[in-house]
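QA checklist item 7 of 12: single-chain prediction sanity check.
[x] sequence parsed
[x] length recorded as 128
[x] structure emitted
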Amino acid sequence: MIATAVDTMLCVRDLDRSVAFYRDVLGFQVTQEWPWIAAVELAGHRLYLFTESEPTEDKPDAWLVPQEEPARGSVIVVLRVDDCDASFDLVRRRGGNFLTPPKEPPWGGKRCFLRDPDGYLLELEQPP
């Protein structure tokens, strides 16, 4: 086996604002926090939120910056849920702003999308 777990890292503009969103709106638990990075966890998945990262010796050609345009991104964070409608209602009451109410895609199940404070697309997905 090559790995024991998979984590995701998202570059954000305002760390405090993003930590509050993932904690208070989506229910993630904050497990580590420094001035430039925080780890939040939900359902066994760790999400690192961090501010801009310049190239370093071990990643010399990589400069990490927040997503520039909310409507044009390259990542979706999928949160699998047992009941999409109930999760939609809960997250909406906590301040989540959804693109649409839950819909049933042609392949089954149910899903809906919202954006985090930096415009990253988040999906609540109830599998078929």
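[x] summary fact logged: The beta strands are 8-11, 29-33, 37-42, 45-50, 76-80, 110-115, 121-126.
[ ] second reviewer sign-off
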